[in-house]
Every structure is written in C-alpha cells, then in structure tokens.
Amino acid sequence: MIKVLMVVSAADHWTLNDGTHHPTGFWAEELVTPYSIFTDAGWNVDVATPGGIAPTVDQASLDEGAGDADTLQEVKAKLEELQPVLAKPLSLDNVKAADYDLVFYPGGHGPMEDLAVNEVSGRILIERMANNAPVALLCHAPAAVLATENAPGGSPFAGRSMTGFSNDEERAAGLADKALWLLEDRLVDLGVQYDKAPEPWASYVTVDGNLYTGQNPSSSRELAERLVKDLV
C-alpha cells in the first residue's frame, strides 16, 4: 500500500507588511480533494503539522467565491468527515519521512507563515530530494522549499522546474500589495525554474523527476490524479 505523509501548516494567520495578521490556514480544497483521491485509490494518508497542532482551515476557502456550489458542498462535507483526523495530527518532529512513498504539501497562505521557515520541514525536503523520493507541493505550499535555502551546496530546488501561486493571482486576490513577499518572486530568487499557466486560476501542474507542483486550488485534482497515475 502506498503511504502518504501530508504536511499541513499549523499557522492560523499570515503576517502582512504592516505587521497585522491576516486570518488564514490551509485551503480546504487543496487538502480534502487530494486526500479523497489518495484514499479512494487505497492509499494510506497520515497528516502531520509543526508541533502536532490541529490545523486551521482558511474560512475564505469555504466561501462562495472559492469555487462552484457543487464543489464547495463536497469540500465542506469531506472536511467535516476529516475532523477526527485533523484534530489529532502527527507532530512533524516525530515522523520519519523515509517511511512514506510520497510527501504532499497542501497550500493556503499558512505555509508562507510557518513552513517557509520551518527547519524540520526543510530537512525533510532536502532528504526527499537527495533520495529522489516523490514530493508534491500545491499552490502556496512551495513556500516550504524556502526553508532549504541554506542547505550545504545550496537548495536542492535550485534549477528545478516548479510552479506555485503566481504574482498575478495574488494581485487578483487583493493581497499582493500587503504581502511581505510574493511566492513567485521568492522561488525565482531561490533559483527555481518557475513556470505558470497562460491564464491565472487555470489548472497547471509541473513534473520534474520526483518533484510535483500545482499552481493554485484549481490544480488540486489534476495534481493528485497525476500522482496516483505515476505512483501506482
């Protein structure tokens, strides 16, 4: 059986450039859609967060503007079903990533607050890349690779093809001018070969060897289905 470690942000806010806290967490569709696709494929999924803190769902991901009515209804129902799992996640400090066939990071702005600077997550990512082991990051979750910046010899993500939430999408969401930094910019600064869909909000997935990334919430299903196709 394929074993998946789903690394979820424990942050409930995102610090803006004026020092205020914007409420956030994980984006519901980006967690529940891949979780459902993986478990429907017969895979075992463990959820872990920094400190084993129960993750916070970004309430904006449950609002009408977050998707069509049918999708939102499915996401909300699945999220409710997953509450016992999310209430008691594993602590990221206590997991052994080598025990898993796939390490998957869902997004939301939360990863920009905690996983972008989390040393444990950074070590996991460095280890996965060194071992050519599958790792996938979705939407804002590629922020987690910034924690590998000071790896010996440089970040293993430098020179690799990746996508992630674009500057255009951040501007359209109304938060670009308030952000301390933008994900697309920081990935490029790290040396990532950043790519994105021709139009904002379109589903877009990149695959570079063991490294899988999805650009935005719309990419959740495509990314998860590609992983199931490739890893079975």
SSE order, as H and E? EEEHEHHEEHHEEHHEEEH
CATH topology: Rossmann fold
Output mean pLDDT. Answer: 97
Structural class: alpha/beta
For the CA atoms, what is the radius of gyration? 16 Å
**Quick one: overall form?**
globular
* Overall domain count: 1
Strand fraction band? 15-25%
Distance between the termini: 9 Å
CATH class: Alpha Beta
**Quaternary state of the chains:** single chain
List keywords for this structure.
alpha/beta; Rossmann fold; 11 strands; 17% strand; globular
Strands, helices and their partners?
Blueprint: E1 3-7, E2 13-15, E3 21-23, H1 28-40, E4 44-49, H2 69-81, H3 83-87, E5 90-91, E6 102-105, H4 110-113, H5 119-130, E7 135-138, E8 161-162, H6 167-172, H7 183-190, E9 193-194, E10 205-208, E11 211-214, H8 220-231
Parallel strand pairs: 1-4, 1-6, 4-5, 6-7, 7-11, 8-9
Antiparallel strand pairs: 2-3, 10-11
Helix pairs in contact: 1-2, 1-8
Descriptive notes:
The protein has a single domain, classed as Rossmann fold. Helix content is 31%, strand content 17%. The protein has helices at residues 28-40, 69-81, 83-87, 110-113, 119-130, 167-172, 183-190, 220-231; strands at residues 3-7, 13-15, 21-23, 44-49, 90-91, 102-105, 135-138, 161-162, 193-194, 205-208, 211-214. β10 (205-208) and β11 form a beta hairpin.
Question: Concise description?
Answer:
This protein has 232 residues and is an alpha/beta fold.
